[in-house]
Amino acid sequence: MATSSVRSLEQVVSRYSVYLHQTSRRFSESGDKGWIRSLFEHKVEARRDAHSNLLSKKETNNLYKIQFHNVKPECLDAYNSLEAEVQNRLHQDRDYPCEVVGSWNTWYGEQDQAVQLWRYRGGYPALTECLQKLKANKEYLELQKERAQMLLSRQNQLLLEFSFWNEPLPRQGPNIYELRTYKLKPGTMIEWGNHWARAIKYRQENNEAVGGFFTQIGNLYVVHHLWAYESLQSREETRNAAWQKDGWDVNVYYTVPLVRSMESRLMIPTKCSPLQ
């Protein structure tokens, strides 16, 4: 039995030596043929277009800007009055290629916050033209300085609208608005768009879908969905009704893993907002 065990051990050692020799040769190979490299190499199919071109509306060529202004609590009323003046002037002046889509104050979410959504028909050239004109507008610059004294902080993002969402158009109120913000994992925007292109049909019956956008400049891989409801009760009923439709649960199942974080703001439109 001892002789048999020794022979078995010798066979194992011999086979292991051959394995080590073969492994050494493979490890020493250069280029993509090396087996170690092949274990860690992740081959990605080349995408032939940016996700902004694949997901956005090409027929309108609209660029959007969303602004978040955190206002000193004691200044909110004065801020709203001043902002209404600025918005009305720019919105009605045909020399400026921009228009205010909506203007709100947060109700639930970050308090004493103002949110504005602007549309630039004509894309980046329209935005550039508008900025150049504003820099030369002394009256606007004075209003901007006055507004700055009322703010704690501010942030903006440039957005494109998803091709499968409604274009945000003026609507009568009264409504409350929900801005749902999703921060996605980098590289998942196409997958998100593919799922929501099918899912949006489940959220149209009550005319609650206002607009859907994704960031181009600012925090990237961020999606904003804007919804309108008659009341908090209407919001609850509308959202619950979606779960009764075959297919909505599938959309949620596949999109949740794409999200890093999400936020919901309930907002009240200001008096000058086209979205009431």
TrEMBL record:
Coiled-coil zones: none
Principal location listed in the UniProt entry: mitochondrion
Assigned GO CC terms: mitochondrial matrix
GO biological process: mitophagy
Keyword Mitochondrion: yes
Ranges of residues in domain NIPSNAP: 177-274
Pfam family, one: NIPSNAP
Subcellular location(s) per record: Mitochondrion matrix
Phosphoprotein as UniProt keyword: no
Keyword annotations: Autophagy, Mitochondrion, Transit peptide
PANTHER family: NIPSNAP-RELATED, PROTEIN NIPSNAP HOMOLOG 1
Described function: Protein involved in mitophagy. Accumulates on the mitochondria surface in response to mitochondrial depolarization and acts as a 'eat me' signal by recruiting proteins involved in selective autophagy.
Family: Belongs to the NipSnap family.
Descriptive protein name: Nipsnap homolog 1 (C. elegans)
Taxonomic source organism: Kryptolebias marmoratus
Organism classification: Eukaryota, Metazoa, Chordata, Craniata, Vertebrata
